[in-house]
Amino acid sequence: MEIKVKKLDKRARVPQYAHDTDAGMDFFALDETTIPAGRSATVPTGIAVEIPTGYVGLVWDKSGLASKEGITTMAGVIDSGYRGAMSLIVFNTTGEDFTFKAGEKVAQMLIQKVEHVGIISADTLSDTERGNKGFGSTGK
Length: 140
Prior knowledge:
- Helices cover 5% and strands 36% of the residues.
- By secondary structure, it is mainly beta.
- It has a single domain, classed as Deoxyuridine 5'-Triphosphate Nucleotidohydrolase, Chain A (Distorted Sandwich), CATH 2.70.40.10.
């Protein structure tokens, strides 16, 4: 499979896999962008992508940024029909501002197959051992 990438700005970096065995391709900041402490911000990439029909791009954290800097991603679903500029929504979990320099890795995107299912409105659902036991139902 191939994915077309359009640079919307000459400074943009095309996404890339750091290693042949990586699941996610890295996306890079177009401009210097500061994420305020305890807040979210949008980081422009300067690119648009063409994800094939039947697939989705899922944006995930870079593990190093999450573990060392407290930077996590939000709202990371890129639908196959979207052709606009990609911006990455990130959240700073720490008490200090964090700044991405232009060209730095921000997040990674995995391409996954999508299954569309029929949706049926129902008055009842089948019984299971777990039933309606939610958060903490396994004892943790």
